[in-house]
Write a structure and sequence with these properties.
Radius of gyration: 30 Å
CATH architecture of the largest domain: Orthogonal Bundle
Oligomer: single chain
CATH superfamily of the largest domain: GroEL-like equatorial domain
Number of strands: 23
Mean pLDDT: 84
Shape: elongated
CATH class of the largest domain: Mainly Alpha
Largest sheet: 7 strands, mixed
Helix content: 40-55%
Distance between the termini: 30 Å
Number of helices: 17
Strand content: 15-25%
Length: 539
């Protein structure tokens, strides 16, 4: 880029840089963002299709989870990356509704483009979208229903809704039940839920129906020695985060041994130190030990002799969950371990699952961390069931925290569209057009649901609009029957936060992309200078 000053060209940007301005820059960004939305649009809803993603190493992922698809896709364009951020935020905040958030953002940009063609300024559109987003949250506040943490039936429906279409329908009831029980177990007294307290282990083999909930922890480790007990009832568990080994000195030190007696004395002292460590553990009354670091061979021998089941190199995250599940305290100084530091479990047992040995810590008294063991016929099935379970755990957790839900099947979006159109008339001016565009964009959800189910989207939308005009707030599209029905009766419900977060993130991303009117892209550096313009979006 060069400017002309008194006849002299003034170079401003490095050679190879590219600058796009005005309407062209907006079009490019909108096109890139919409391409991302289009890529995940067909996965929406129970009749949504799956995507097969193959990475550069040839690893295959088959999924219809929006966040997973966008994470695996190799996206280069900066505006398209913003759409990936929308999905990531939605996944972090709510755990489900990622596809909804992305296609809403894409549709908002599509509607904005036609407004730009009518010479409406981007700032006006952005302002209208912001007002519409705030009003949409207000309307959601009026149409949501309450759900109590004790209402297991409703929570199960919320979990099932999140899992439909993710390859888990056949045993959806079983998995929904597992997710509700797990969330209720780890819910704190103040109603908050940390889904990380539910550990999900997956193993290929068996079928999805063989999945189970363990009221305690599953640790992917085996006993350190085969002569240790395989099964310990009424386990008193010690959690140790230092090594049962003789520590090497931090500084360089030499020990000079000049005679066999000294060598013998040195080895005997090492043995005595290891034995005193095991004696301290035995003296505390522990009969199960989980160690975060290594256990010396000799210490293993003494532990086995004492009839103690021990596992080593347990992950730090698992140690923390074990502490929550069993009530044990994590001890650093082995000599100071006491019976007050020990946790309790009714049963600790090593079992063979698939080809691996795993240690089950179960029958805990009041576990604040639990585990779910997922099974499935193939690796891809287990992976997809794990993603479905993640969504179910997240939405049940959110529902328990917030205590609110809305109906699915596009019913909430149609009600929002209807409410926003009424609101637009009261605003007037050019902003009215932006708010109406926002209302139209909301209808992308029921329209896509209809398309995925092989129905006529226009007929469906017309029917839904007329029902909502009559005040039937819960009317949505039942994709299984192809009919427009009361979704509350069908039991398709989801946490209200899914919608508020999706609408908020989509509106913010769309307004941010709209306000960009100048793109300056630096040339890619090659050896010996700048390269060409950056690549577009790659699938």
């Amino acid at each position: 880029m060069a400017g002309q000053l008194a006849g002299q060209p003034v170079l401003i940007l490095r050679e190879g840089s590219q600058r796009t301005r005005g309407r062209e820059a907006q079009s490019m960004n909108i096109m890139a963002a919409r391409a991302v939305a289009e890529a995940v649009r067909t996965t929406l809803g129970p009749k949504g299709m799956d995507k097969m993603l193959v990475d550069s190493l040839g690893d295959v992922v088959i999924t219809n989870d929006g966040a997973t698809i966008l994470k695996e896709m190799d996206i280069e364009h900066p505006a398209a990356k913003m759409m990936v951020e929308v999905a990531k935020t939605q996944d972090d905040e709510v755990g489900d509704g990622t596809t909804t958030a992305v296609i809403l953002a894409g549709e908002l940009l599509k509607k904005a483009e036609s407004l730009l063609d009518q010479d409406i300024h981007p700032t006006v559109i952005a302002s209208g979208y912001r007002h519409a987003s705030a009003k949409a949250k207000e309307i959601l506040g009026e149409i949501h229903s309450k759900v109590a943490a004790e209402d297991e039936e409703l929570l199960k429906k919320i979990a099932t809704t999140a899992m439909i279409g993710k390859g888990a329908e056949v045993t959806g009831d079983k998995l929904a039940e597992l997710s509700v029980k797990a969330v209720k177990a780890v819910a704190q007294e103040d109603g908050s839920v940390d889904v990380d307290d539910v550990k999900v282990e997956k193993k290929v083999g068996g079928s999805v129906g063989d999945s189970e909930l363990v009221e305690g922890m599953i640790i992917d480790k085996e006993r350190v020695r085969s002569d240790m007990p395989k099964k310990v009832e009424n386990a008193k568990i010690a959690l140790i985060d230092s090594a049962l080994e003789i520590e090497k000195t931090e500084v360089d030190a030499k020990i000079e041994i000049t005679s066999p007696e000294q060598m013998q004395a040195f080895l005997a002292e090492e043995e005595r130190m290891l034995k005193s460590m095991v004696d301290a553990i035995k003296g505390s009354g522990a009969n199960v030990v989980f160690c975060q670091k290594g256990i010396d061979d000799l210490a293993q021998h003494y532990l086995a002799k004492a009839g103690i089941l021990a596992a080593r190199r347990v992950k730090e995250s698992d140690m923390k969950k074990l502490a929550k599940a069993t009530g044990a305290k994590i001890v650093s100084n082995i000599q100071e371990v006491s019976k007050n530091d020990l946790g309790y479990a009714g049963l600790v047992e090593e079992r063979t699952i698939g080809e691996d040995e795993m240690t089950f810590v179960e029958k805990c008294k009041n576990p604040k961390a639990v585990s779910i063991m997922l099974r499935g016929g193939t690796e891809h099935v287990v992976d997809e069931v794990e993603r479905a379970m993640h969504d179910a755990l997240c939405v049940v957790g959110v529902a328990v925290e917030d205590g609110t839900f809305v109906v699915g099947g596009g019913a909430a979006e149609m009600e929002l569209a209807s409410g926003l159109r009424k609101y637009a008339v009261t605003v007037g001016g050019r902003e009215q057009l932006a708010i109406e565009a926002f209302a139209d964009a909301m209808e992308v959800v029921p329209r896509t649901l209809a398309e995925s189910a092989g129905l006529d989207p226009i007929d469906t939308l017309v029917e839904l609009r007329s029902e909502h005009e009559k005040g039937k707030k819960h009317t949505g599209l039942n994709v299984n029957t192809g009919k427009v029905t009361d979704m509350d009766k069908v039991g398709i419900i989801e946490p209200a936060r899914i919608k508020t977060q999706a609408i908020g993130s989509a509106a913010e991303a769309a307004t941010m992309i709209l306000r960009i009117d100048d793109v300056v892209a630096a040339g890619k550096l090659k050896e010996g200078g700048a390269g060409g313009p950056p690549e577009g979006m790659e699938y």
